[in-house]
Amino acid sequence: MKRIVFDNFKPEKILRAIEKIDSDEDEKISPLRLHLYMKKVISGQRLKEKKLRKVFLGIDEVNDFIKDSNKINIFYKNLIFFFDEIPLTNIDRWIFAIKNSLFSSYEEPKYHNILKNSYSKKLDDNIKFNSLGNQHIYKYIKDDFEMERFYIKSIYSYFIQSSLGIESIYEELGISTVSSFYYSSVHKMIKENILEVAIEKNNILYSKEFIKIVKDVFSIKDKDILFKKLLNAYYNNKKSPKDYNTIWFNYILEVNGRLNQKGWNEYSEIEKLIFKKWLNYKNIKDFFEKHAIYPDRKDYWYNWIDIIEEAVFIKEFKTALIMKFKEHLIIEFGEVGAVRVYSYKDLSIRGINLLFNNYPKTRAIQKINDEYQEDLNSRWYHQGNWQWKFNYNMRKLGYRI
Hints:
This protein has a 4-stranded antiparallel beta sheet with strand order 1-2-3-4. By secondary structure, the protein is mostly helical. The chain folds into 3 domains: 1-144; 146-257; 287-397, no CATH class. Mean pLDDT is 89; it is low at 1-10 and 17-26. It is elongated. Helix content is 62%, strand content 5%.
């Protein structure tokens, strides 16, 4: 018997360790011997309880050993017949084998349901098990739910109610995080609950845990499906970018990059618009929290976020926040200076970037000052009741909120 050190084990881990010790005897079977037992089942030869249990433990090998579909049908028919008539002398060892057979067969509903129905009839009602994994497989056997549906519901419920991570919950339930069941069910669980976690609950810890799993197991195509679902939901519920889940939008930015990058090629204009609104909000927020600490100015421009088409930060231009409206550029400065306004026909964001790419900083600034006419022929100063004055100027430019 293997020596187990219990000093740092949590109660649930101790229970699983005990299960492992109890099952070690049953796990040790060579492929040749397992094949021999399966042949005996097909031929109708009865096996002793211990040997029969080993067949259930190795049932995931049946398709490798038996290629003929008729023989596979005979195998399951005889296996269930033998199981139904044999007394179960050690329910803890049997539940381990039963759990293994159900997770191994879940992708083949025909045989999986045969096994489940047989187990449900065989096992008495109200059996008590110590470990969470055994409790759940027993509950599943007695339930009418399809296996993935049962576990997705249970795992998500545990996730919301506990402090455990998703992988830890699977492990507590005795499900390997490298199994096909894990990959399939965790995909579905995240896709089904993304809107509740990201939008309804808008919970940072839940979102971080979901994103951790998405990073590990989702393909680029699956990530796109998830991101599109999220972006369209924000479009439909008309939320302000201030209320968007920053954790998720930062992750979308990390994966897809800026809107001019190829990661956005398969996205609709609506999906791009929602992301652009958030990106504009982020740039305004970052500017007024990192480069120009004026909360009142930040709050003022937040009010216009729905009609700001683009907001970018250009450090070389006196630490400038440049906001593009339909026909104008409006520029706030982080160093010193009043707000400037230019007609977009005369000066664009691209034009400003070209100037700073082609000229030294002081020369580029001088060219903007000398060669481009500011609109309204005056600058906007943050003095007195400046918000009212700004609103008046915005109306003159044709913008209202």
